[in-house]
Amino acid sequence: MVHQTDFCILGAGLAGLSLADALQEQNFSVIVVDKNTVAAGASGTPGGLVNPATGRRGVKSWKAELCYETIAQNLEKVQGSSPETFYLNNGLLRPALLKKMARKMKEQYEKTSWAEGWCEWKTEGEIKEIHPNIKCVDGGYWLPVGLSVNIEKYLNAYANYLENRGVKSFFNQEPKVINDKKSWKLESGDVTINSKNLVFATGHSTGDSPFWNWLPLHLIKGQVAKFKTNGSPLSFSHSISSLGYIALTGEKDTFIQGSTYEHDFTDLNPNNEGEAYLRKRMRRTLPQLEERATVIEQWAGVRTSTPNRKPILGRHPNHKNLHLFTGLGSKGLLYSKFLANHYLEHLTDGAVLFPEINISRLL
After folding, report:
1. 317 near 362, Cβ under 8 Å?
2. Looking at the DSSP assignment, which residues form a beta bridge with residue 3?
3. 0.70 exceeded by the pTM?
4. What is the C-alpha to C-alpha distance for residues 60 and 7, in angstroms, rounded to an integer?
5. At what angle do helices 14-25 and 151-164 cross, to 10 degrees?
6. CA gyration radius for the chain?
7. Which of 105, 239, 251, 309 stands the most exposed, by the fewest C-beta atoms within 10 Å?
8. Calpha distance 67→89 (Å, rounded)
9. If you average pLDDT over every residue of the chain, what do you get?
10. What is the per-residue pLDDT across 212-245, written as a single tens digit (0 to 9) for each?
11. What angle do CA 170, 333, 255 make, to 5 degrees?
12. Which backbone phi and psi does 246 adopt, to 5 degrees?
């Protein structure tokens, strides 16, 4: 069967589905193709955070207000079409674990302009009022706007939402790509797709393509684990960012602990070393929780990073109807929908891409 479309997007993760949504909203025809299934790559983590304060110092993330507003609205939109809850508006606690860390965090807080109600500096005593028994030295951040998201469930709900709006999808397909200069033909089995534009939103496998193997991409393996408490429910309702993060799931006795940052790895599977690393981080912040927590699921994925740790958006230098959306790294949830909308404005209205994310910076 032959399918005609304006845009064919390779990849059904955060980047691919967000861009498919933005394009469909402007009445472009869109087909999404993935060599596996929805959320099969790094986007498919069972738990993540929308956290506008990043790094050990809690630096305000790039375009924080715009990115946050966009993803919060999108989560609400997709949740409205799904019977299964996949995110919590439950706030985020960021305790400092060392005096030096607390000093640097407070210095960062005092020189940062935060929107009202987004971020509050709390003393050590105030942190422990919010969460008794948590390890904390000299204070930390409380972010009422922090969101906890089961990204795998979100993306599956997102794919269903897009399907109901007319976005076709083909999974477990790795088509042969043929360029005739004016359009693209993708062939896989009895499926042929003729597309005016082709978008690579393929995450860590982007560099495997001869079109993109010149990009300076860095791959980082991340492992997370889902833990269950032994017999008693959790005593807190917020998520935590300290050494790694603890994201709540909405279940009274389970949580997600993440993440490892493995720059040298030989396989893509979760392992015992990953669990040990995650437990060590949990123990530094909540030792009593670690003592009664049992792993019930492990997950691993590979994130794509760039030299300036910002995503890449833009057209191929030699093929104007070939596009790239990758490099979301650990902030994919925060960035994805805002950048998809930004790229749509670039394509339709000629808006200039932000230089920090424009592919031209790498040429």
Report:
1. no
2. 193
3. yes
4. 34
5. 30
6. 21
7. 251
8. 16
9. 95
10. 999 999 999 999 999 999 878 999 999 999 989 9
11. 100
12. -120, 115
